[in-house]
Amino acid sequence: MLRKATAKDLSALAALRCRAAGTSRADAEGWLQNVAGLENILVLEKPGQPPAAMLAAVPVEYGQHRGIWLCGAAGRQGVPMERLLPKLIESCLRAYGASGFDFAVMTPEDARNAGELKTLGFTSQLPLRVLHTQIRRDLLAQAAFDSLTVHKLLEMRCIYQPGCICLPESAMNEIMTQLYRRGLTVVSTRRGYGLY
User: Fold this and answer.
1) Is the separation of the CB atoms in 157 and 164 below 8 Å?
2) Selection from 162, 163, 156 nearest residue 188 by Cα
3) What is the distance between the terminal CA atoms of the chain, rounded to a whole angstrom?
4) Total-model pTM
5) pLDDT tens-digit profile of 156-172?
6) How far apart are CA 156 and CA 162, in angstroms?
7) Which long-range contacts (CB under 8 A, 24 or more apart) does 168-172 make?
8) In this model, does residue 3 exceed pLDDT 60?
9) Cystine design at 171: which of 35, 62, 66, 102 (Cβ 3.0–4.6 Å)?
């Protein structure tokens, strides 16, 4: 049975997220509640048993278009996610397409997963780019470190990356908090910004 998650599922879903993402319980719960939002998580279960698998369908924006970000797929030990995931994604695409959403975005985990997404109609929009440039030695004097609020970061993304998918500010707050805990540094100048 496929259904939307509720608050009583939080503990079981956090365990699935911890196992799949290799993260702490606090980060897993923060991601489930503040990034994905429990109301956006689809749970697959058999009646009377704990959730077997989950997939988040997070509302995002691209300019004036509404879409969903399919992410956070996780399953219990022994659950064949490689067979279930394409079916879950296909049912999500049908349901959200009928609800007026314009696009869906998902990041493949590996080449095989990318091939499966192509069979569902996904196309690659973000090719890998490797830029080789010299690093100026006076970077410290010309940049401000960790000075961006999430609100300012979102404003800068609109200026310097106008074609990017945007999460709500509350979801970005949680993501940035978790990244800072892992050692993220934000560097900004009037010419742009970087996350390191």
Assistant:
1) yes
2) 156
3) 42
4) 0.75
5) 888 887 777 888 888 88
6) 9
7) 168/59, 170/34, 171/34, 171/35, 171/36, 171/37, 171/58
8) yes
9) 35
